[in-house]
Amino acid sequence: MILYSMADASEKSAPGLKRLTQKELNAIIDQHERFVTGRKGGLRANLSDHDLSQMVLAGRNLADANFTGAILFEADLHDADLARATLFCADLRCANLNGTNLTSADLRGASLRGTSLVGANMAKVDLREGSLANAKGDGGLKAAHANLTVADKGGANLSGANLSNAKLSGAVAVGSNFSDATMKSAVLKKASLKDANFSGCNLDGADMSECSLENVNLRGAILTGTAINISEVSAENLEGALTSNLMGKSINELGAPIEDLLRAHKAWVDSSGQSGKRLDLSGYDLRGVAQLTNACLTMMRGVGAVLYGVNLAKTPLQAVELREADLRQAILTKADLRGGNFVKARLNGAKMQNVQLQPLVIGTGRSIKTDFSDAQLRFVDFSGANLSHVSFKNADLADANFNGCNLEGADLTGANIEGIRTEGVTGL
User: Fold this and answer.
1) Residue 269, φ and ψ in degrees, nearest 5
2) Nearest to 57 by CA among 79, 90, 85
3) Per-residue pLDDT tens digits for 247-267
4) With contact defined as beta carbons under 8 Å apart, do 113 and 148 qualify?
5) Rounded distance between C-alpha atoms, residue 62 and residue 60, angstroms
6) Which residues form the domain of 376?
7) Entry pTM
8) Best CA proximity match to 80, nearest among 54, 117, 53
9) Pick from 30, 58, 192, 284: CA 20 to 30 A from residue 141's CA?
10) Do residues 203 and 188 share a domain?
11) Which H helix or E strand runs over 242?
């Protein structure tokens, strides 16, 4: 197959490929959606070797469709369903796949140079020997992409994408952006990752052995159980990375079993400080401490504590002090966080659906507001939460989900709100 240059994309179809009008494409997708849902007149979409450059497929159900060798240059596929779709050797350069479902899709040999996949679900996707950047020489590209030029610059943007269990062995991902992506147990063996950005990326259990790691950015990344030659990465590019090593004090240094300390804390809360003892977990690494789930943690102190991935769903956490704590990927669904202090805390990727964050009333005319000033809240799911009067001053809220939230009186002064979702929001 011969690809065309980017300059030719809007003028003519690539040689040997069939060019469709938007109306013709819509008709094919309509038939495919009937096929997927088992309705009469359905027919699976076979769009292999078609020129679909700059076409609109956004939000459509294209699960199991065939795009082998198709050109989707600058196509709009945001929020589409491409689960199990065949995109073998497809040209997806500069396409919009933000929020797209690509679960178990076949992207072997596909070109994703300049493609935006922010928040896409790419669990179990197959990107082996795929082109996420322009390789030279024997860089593993399929013949279909042999004539990509230096004009096709810029790696793929997979920021916040879900690449759990994805297969990227031998992939060329030079200059690609995987920041804040979830890549648990992904296989990237022998991948070319020069200048790639994995900052804040969850690489728990991933295989990055024999990878080219020149100037790779792993700041704040999760590297627990990751197979990687860390000696090839500069200390500067590993700043804030979370490894399997303790990142604070061990709970064995608490001086008493955690169960006893939790009982004493509950007694302290119930007696308004007259008995028991306040729980102070400041500076402790609490990963894997299951006893915290559903425990009474009201007014607990945990300044700088590591609570990565901890399950605190439905847990009472009123007036907690968790300044500078690491709560990335934490599960806080339906938790009561009223009046909490989360200044400079890291909560990227946390699940906070339906949490209570409105002011905590402590007496007649007295209340404590929840404070997320200067906190990192990228890709947090706040959907359905009560966020009235919460302070998000100077917080990083990029790509956070605020659908259905109450934001009455919330302070967003200086906050980064790029890419946030606000459907059904009240009080904004």
Assistant:
1) -65, -50
2) 79
3) 999 999 999 999 999 999 999
4) yes
5) 6
6) 246-428
7) 0.79
8) 117
9) 58
10) yes
11) strand 242-243
